[in-house]
Amino acid sequence: MMKCLLTLIILFVSLTSSAFTLTQNNLRGFRDKKLRVSLNPANCITSIESELDFAIELWNNVPGSRLELIKESQNSVATSSYSSFGFVQTILIGCSTNFSSDAGGAGLTTIGVGSSTMQGTGRLVKGFLILNEEGGAGQYSTQSQAVRRFTMAHELGHVLGLGHSSVSEGLMYPSVSSKADTNLHQDDMDGIIYLYPLDEMDEGLYGCGRIESGGPLLPGPKNLTLLFVFLLLPLFLWARLKKSTGLSFSFPFRGAEHDSFWARRPENNPLAESH
Amino acid sequence: MYTSLGIMNENLTRTTDKPNGKAGFLGSALDYPIFFGLELPAVADATAGGEAVWAPRIGYTFLPRKTADNAAKVEYLILSLPYIKKLGSMGFDYMIGTSYFRQTYKGTGGTVSSSNGGSAATYYQGDYDQVASYMTVDFGLGYNFAPYKVSSELFVLSPLSDKRSYNLLINFTYFWESTSL
After folding, report:
1. Which of the ends of chain B has fewer CB neighbours closer than 10 A, N or C?
2. Exposed, middle or buried, A71 (CB in 10 Å: 0-12/13-18/19+)?
3. Which residues of B are less than 8 Å from A248 in CB distance?
4. In this complex, do B163 and A210 lie within 8 Å of one another by their Cβ atoms?
5. Which of A89-93, A260-264, B63-67 tops mean pLDDT?
6. Given CB atoms, is A154 within the 8 Å cutoff of chain B?
7. At residue A254, does pLDDT exceed 50?
8. How many angstroms separate the CA of residue B93 from the nearest CA in chain A?
9. How many folded domains does chain A comprise?
10. What is the extent of the structural domain holding A60?
């Protein structure tokens, strides 16, 4: 039984932690609580809408972060002018058939580029994301859906201010290889909380005011079962350990040696009734 | 009065620590909060024949979580107000309550060079502190063997929003003295 308990503890302790970086020195993220995201669908594959929705939801749902990306109506701004456009607190997203030029000389093995502009205050004021539809190994539309999702979320992370991370399991790791699914690592969450910390005292307690129709109230049945097991398992192990070692069995509030609140109540204390 | 030593796993089912990017049940962040608390009899329950206490407590991670490369330290201050009630006669109890989390990131500064496309780029580690604060709804089960207790607690972060997440805390408690009227 002790071996089981030790295994559980070692399982916890062996989990690793991680590191995030910022794209610019002294960066403090975008100023506004709600940040607009606008897509120019020209030159893009039709699935880009769902991939953008996925990426927005991924970054929006970081617990402890105030970040709220809102998808706005589509725009028609040419990707060649993204670096000089004037919409503040807005992220423009588009696909370029002249990617190398529009993305500042990026090679055609690159799938996408995310960038943002910082003011002297350390606040970001605008950003853009350009995807490669010029061709080459990095052409966005020829990638698998898993890679497209990862790329969209990764580049959006750059636009929000996150740099590359050394954590190979994380979303902000500079390579997409072997990623079959796109989820955030704790390192990604730490980074976005660092840039966009939540203050619920200002923004509605318990997440109030951020209810959206899409999210489930509880995790799925599989996770609920796991949660149940993980709540009960330590208690079960401890009870078995106590039984095998012969430890005393009493509620701390009612232990006779503690003269507790519970023991003082007449129905819990036969001595009190005999007087 | 009681003191608890906890192991808290953050963001259950929400994060990945696998090369393929799939999310696991456990999160990849561990914290070790130490709590100091009091037991206060729940008067209404005492008169109604129940066995319950309010057990307000303050917790702090004296050993902060360090990110890799020591880029930042993450500390927690946790104020909790659990309501604990006896569950059957086997020494178990259950807990419901609410907590205030104050999560502090202490940036250490510096630069990092990383590959970016076909070349290398310089990125920056934060050199300032940031604080996130939020409320949680808490549920727990405990097993008592005086004067000790072991419990599992689940903190639900942002329960009313899509940011909803779960932290699991395994707590080992020692009671310095018992509740008395």
Report:
1. C
2. middle
3. 145-146
4. yes
5. A89-93
6. no
7. no
8. 9
9. 1
10. 19-204
By the CB < 8 Å criterion, does A27 face chain B?
Answer: yes
Tokens of B71: 């880029």
- Using the beta-carbon criterion (under 8 Å), do A219 and B170 form an inter-chain contact? no
Distance of CA A175 to the CA centre of its chain: 18
SS3 A224: helix
What is the pLDDT averaged over residues A50-54? 94
Chain A residues with beta carbon closer than 8 angstroms to that of B73: none
Cα separations in angstroms, B30 against A14, B9, B16, B166, B167: 10, 5, 14, 13, 10
Report chain B residues whose CB lies below 8 A from the CB of A189.
11, 14-15
Whether the ipTM is more than 0.85: the answer is yes
CA angle, corner A29, sides to A26 and A31, nearest 5? 120
Structural domain includes residue A265: no
* Contact list, A171 vs chain B (CB under 8 Å): 21
Share of chain B above pLDDT 90, in %: 49
B18–A169: do the CB atoms touch at under 8 Å?
yes
Q: Is A33 on the interface with B (CB under 8 A)?
A: no
Contact A184/A86 with Cβ under 8 angstroms? no
Calculate how close chain B gets to A83, using CA atoms only, in Å: 19
pLDDT higher for A78 or B89? A78
Q: Is residue A2 part of a domain?
A: no
CB spacing of B158 vs A62 below 8 angstroms: no
Residue A28 Cα distances to A22, A67, A267, B8, angstroms: 9, 12, 61, 28
CB contact under 8 A, A230 and B135: no
Closest CA to A77 of A35, A24, A125, A126: A126
Q: Does some domain include residue A256?
A: no
Identify the bridge partners of residue A40 per DSSP, sorted by sequence position: A94
B57-105: pLDDT as tens digits: 999 999 998 876 677 899 999 999 999 998 887 889 999 999 999 999 9
| CB spacing of B181 vs A21 below 8 angstroms | no
Q: For residue A221, tell me if it sits in a domain.
A: no
Instruction: Residue A160: give its domain's CATH number.
Output: 3.40.390.10
